[in-house]
Write a structure and sequence with these properties.
Number of domains of chain A: 1
Structural class of chain B: mainly alpha
Radius of gyration of chain A: 22 Å
Strand order of the largest sheet of chain A: 1-2
Structural class of chain A: mainly alpha
Number of helices of chain B: 5
Order of helices and strands of chain B: HHHHH
Oligomer: heterodimer
Helix content of chain B: 55-70%
Distance between the termini of chain B: 61 Å
Largest interface: A-B, 62 and 73 residues
Order of helices and strands of chain A: HHHHHHHHEEHHHHHHHHHHHHH
Number of domains of chain B: 2
Strand content of chain B: under 5%
Helix content of chain A: over 70%
Distance between the termini of chain A: 55 Å
Radius of gyration of chain B: 24 Å
Number of helices of chain A: 21
Largest sheet of chain A: 2 strands, antiparallel
Number of strands of chain A: 2
Shape of chain B: flat
Chain lengths: ~500, ~160
């Protein structure tokens, strides 16, 4: 039981007062931004990167992970009471949850969401604890060719599974890869796509792109759609203590949601959205009360809310063990590792085991804090929902420009932010998914480095990618993700 | 009929825009002077692949939107361009005024433009909230976290 011992050491790290404080800061901030529509974990962590540069990495990561978990807890409150998802992982929660709130059962919906999140978050963290070391062993088998093929697989799955169509997903990915090209080539020192601007030589910072797409693009989009501007906040009605009947109807969806969410988070499929959709439809199929779906079925809240928290735990497995981000937030977390010169993967587990296991242990503690923050104190958080939208977005843009400017005290970054923001607006408006763009930006340069390393080891022979069995399997999977849906569609048409 | 033409227009413009980006990347890559020792696995392969991919995707989107089909990129709701324009103006003003006027005035201008674009007409409330928020951010980040934000006209006062 290596993991068990390591986890106990992790608790020793996580339970120090300073790290408990970071965890509390993270989960509180996470709940806050989860509840506020228009600001999510990816954007918040991106904005925190420049100001946490000098922090102890263990504390910073404990805070970031708490924030990611917390956002999933908080967003259910917004979905249920405002009918607008606080985050994309809570879209399905709004369907039944808001109806429940309208019927005066809002408190029960909030309870099943929070307890379901706790169950799923804890089980997910448990799975992470025991799976991560196994993934690390797998990672030891990986050479440059395998890493490159793994990234190609991540590229195809995120572009195929997210967004309104494959072509839009691919376009978003390629745009991200193009952003990643800008700057000095690491191996030869050649400037690429710099157009004579010295400020572009160090590349486009992921913070600029994430903030541009998530904050500026989103604000422009929300302003452009006046119909999205008004929403009615429902008061919390009913008892937060669920009835025996509600417990009976909730516990299975929690477990099923966890079982769906965790593996989907670990797969390169863009994180929390897809498992919540699947969970909702699964519960709708399995329920004994099909007539209640659409009219406030508690299963429709319990399942998806468990799924999104379990997915967050799942996302951390490939991120920590392989350095592979499977969601936009994970991509920002990878940038955070780069900021501290840490390399996720086997080296991280052997060289910085205090950080990794302290981080994992903090997730158990964070989940308990979140349950307390989100159940008895939910009444306080709800007041955040009454912040008027004009002030909320004004504040988001002020902090966005502050964060981007403080990257290198340059107004040139603000110009880039503006350009990326316009692109983000167009993407949002025409339903291009944003996550492939962020993942492409962070993984593109890494994929290129592995590609060139693999080819220089093989002395320029490109067949390495298909002669190494593991690499060939990954490439085949990558191709299948794109080709199978096309074939299926053809078959359906005939 | 008329709406159908605007539907095609958005997708067509996006497709052509992607092709334009692809040609910029392709052209820039062609200009690179690569030492012969790196010619084989050099810094040009990836840009070329990305340029070709972008051009192909752009052509696909443009063609589908032109011909109509299952991947047409359409307009969902009428767009309030005035609000978009106000935020754009606010952002441009902010980046130009940040250094000469300072973080606080530029931030308040940005805040007010966004609030106005989102339909708020309570100028007094917005100005007070905006000013306090920006001031708090300035004081907190410069004194608390040691960031260097431009003081501008409030130099000496803060």
């Amino acid at each position: 039981m290596d993991s068990f011992l390591a986890l106990m050491n992790g608790f020793a790290t996580a339970l120090t007062p300073i790290n408990l404080m970071w965890s509390l800061v993270g989960v509180t901030l996470g709940t806050l931004i989860g509840i506020l529509p228009g600001i999510g974990p990816a954007l918040t962590i991106a904005l925190l990167l420049p100001v946490t540069r000098n922090l102890d990495p263990t504390g910073a990561f404990i805070m970031f992970a708490g924030l990611y978990y917390g956002a999933m807890y908080g967003s259910s409150t917004t979905s249920i009471l405002l009918n607008t998802p606080g985050e994309s992982g809570s879209i399905m929660t709004a369907v039944e949850g808001n109806v429940m709130a309208k019927q005066g059962r809002g408190a029960a919906a909030l309870s099943t969401a929070a307890i379901g999140s706790f169950v799923a978050g804890t089980l997910g963290t448990l799975a992470l604890t025991f799976l991560a070391p196994i993934f690390v062993k797998l990672a030891l088998l990986f050479g440059p060719a395998e890493y490159f093929s793994l990234m190609i697989m991540a590229f195809t799955t995120v572009s195929a599974l997210l967004g309104a169509s494959i072509s839009r997903g691919v376009a978003a990915l390629l745009l991200g890869l193009a952003f990643g090209l800008v700057g000095t080539d690491i191996l030869t020192g050649q400037p690429r796509l710099v157009f004579g601007y010295p400020s572009l030589l160090r590349g486009i910072d992921i913070v600029v792109v994430a903030v541009g797409l998530f904050a500026v693009g989103e604000a422009l989009f929300m302003a452009s759609q006046s119909s999205l501007r008004t929403a009615e906040i429902l008061p919390i009605k009913g008892s937060l203590f669920m009835t025996r009947e509600e417990w009976r109807r909730s516990w299975k969806p929690w477990l099923r949601g966890t079982a769906l969410g965790f593996p989907f988070g670990a797969l390169p499929a863009g994180g929390t959205e897809i498992p919540t959709f699947l969970s909702y439809f699964l519960e709708k199929k399995l329920t004994k009360h099909p007539e209640e779906f659409g009219r406030g079925a508690i299963e429709g809240v319990a399942g998806p809310e468990a799924a999104n928290n379990a997915a967050v735990a799942g996302v951390l497995v490939p991120l920590l063990a392989l350095g592979l981000p499977t969601s936009a937030t994970a991509a920002i977390l990878l940038a955070a590792f780069e900021q501290y010169n840490l390399q996720p993967g086997p080296l991280l587990f052997s060289g910085s085991s205090t950080l990794v296991w302290g981080l994992i242990a903090s997730l158990y503690i964070g989940n308990v804090m979140l349950l307390v923050l989100n159940l008895p104190l939910v009444g306080l958080w709800v007041r955040l929902l009454s912040i008027p939208q004009p002030l909320l977005y004004g504040g988001i843009l002020v902090f966005s420009t502050l964060g981007v400017y403080s990257l290198s005290n340059s107004t040139f970054d603000l110009l880039l932010l503006f350009i990326v923001g316009i692109i983000g607006f167009l993407m949002r408006r025409h339903e291009f998914p944003v996550a492939p763009c962020i993942i492409g930006l962070i993984l593109g340069p890494l994929a290129e480095a592995q590609f060139r390393r693999a080819l220089s080891i093989s002395q320029g022979d490109p067949s390495v990618f298909v002669t190494h069995p593991l690499s060939a399997v990954l490439l085949a999977l990558a191709a299948a993700v794109i080709i199978v849906p096309i074939i299926l569609r053809r078959v359906k048409h005939v | 009929m008329n709406t159908k033409q605007t539907i095609a227009g958005a997708g067509l413009a996006i497709g052509l825009g992607l092709i334009a980006i692809a040609s910029v990347i392709g052209f820039d890559t062609m200009q690179m002077q690569v030492p012969p020792s790196y010619a084989r696995v050099g810094p040009q392969i990836f840009p070329y692949i990305i340029a070709i991919g972008l051009a192909a995707t752009g052509a696909h989107i443009a063609w589908k939107s032109y011909r109509g089909g299952d991947e047409v990129i359409d307009e969902v709701e009428p767009t309030d361009w005035k609000s978009v324009g106000i935020i754009v103006a606010g952002l441009i003003a902010h980046m130009n005024l940040l250094k000469p006027l300072g973080f606080v005035p530029a931030g308040v201008i940005l805040f007010l433009s966004v609030a106005f674009a989102f339909g708020s007409r309570r100028y007094g409330r917005d100005a007070i909230v905006g000013f306090l928020l920006v001031l708090l951010a300035y004081v907190g980040f410069t004194y608390g976290l040691g960031l260097q934000l431009p003081p501008g006209i409030l130099k000496g006062l803060l």
